[in-house]
């Protein structure tokens, strides 16, 4: 299938590529070594008392892996190299997040603080705190789109602002410490940088079978999202709407991608 030439991602030597994760890691070290982790958590967590719990459930599910993969359907047929980068990014981020969760095995706020001393919205989690997977997913997707040159400066600001809100929401719902969020953000952005860097080598992203395989994975994610229990009931309808909207909007490109190819008649 013929596709328009897509913009090349930001080159690895640009400061925008590696400076954000380095700054995030520095902030994480400052919060941890300075002993600000619990105090900062207790300062941010009560935000839900002023807004009510529902908006934070909407925001926090935007960091759910199935939500992000469903939204990525909108790139099918338009940005094959970016989608291949997303596939690599997902593998790297998943390995880092789950490897660190199992390796550190740190308690979440609910496993450390006294019940009733902070707010819990949605499901109550206790183990495998570091890093925040939702934050890593949100920053990986935002970083992928920003470094992949999707949209202009306002789009980049909106994407990064959304990822930041997802990270804050993980503290407001009582699921993560600030160091978890900062670490997850660094992992997400760094994984996106690596994914895009690896994806630019070779022509594998333009192979029809690779594009179709990635598209099928994204379709499956959207279908699963229709029935997915994220642990945040107020966001269930939002999840279903995002999944359905992604499938509908991506339908023309999906039809073109899977359209049978004409064969050359013998003669």
3D structure, described in words:
With 267 residues, the chain is an all-alpha fold. It has one domain. The protein has helices at residues 15-33, 37-44, 47-51, 54-60, 65-71, 80-104, 109-112, 133-147, 153-172, 178-199, 208-225, 236-257. Helix 6 packs antiparallel against helix 8 (133-147), helix 6 (80-104) packs antiparallel against helix 10 and helix 8 (133-147) packs parallel to helix 10 (178-199). The longest helix is centred in the middle third of the chain and has 25 residues, at 80-104. The chain starts with 14 loop residues before the first helix and ends in a 10-residue tail after the last helix. The mean pLDDT is 93.
How are the elements arranged and paired?
Layout: H1 15-33, H2 37-44, H3 47-51, H4 54-60, H5 65-71, H6 80-104, H7 109-112, H8 133-147, H9 153-172, H10 178-199, H11 208-225, H12 236-257
Helix pairs in contact: 1-10, 4-9, 5-11, 6-8, 6-10, 8-9, 8-10, 9-10, 11-12
Structure, briefly:
The chain has 267 residues and is mainly alpha-helical.
Helical amount: 55-70%
Beta-strand content: under 5%
Rg computed from alpha carbons, rounded to a whole number of angstroms: 20 Å
Decide which structural class fits the backbone.
mainly alpha
Count of runs of 4 or more consecutive helical residues: 12
The helix/strand series, from N terminus to C terminus, equals: HHHHHHHHHHHH
- Cα(first) to Cα(last) distance is 25 Å
Query: What is the mean pLDDT?
Result: 93
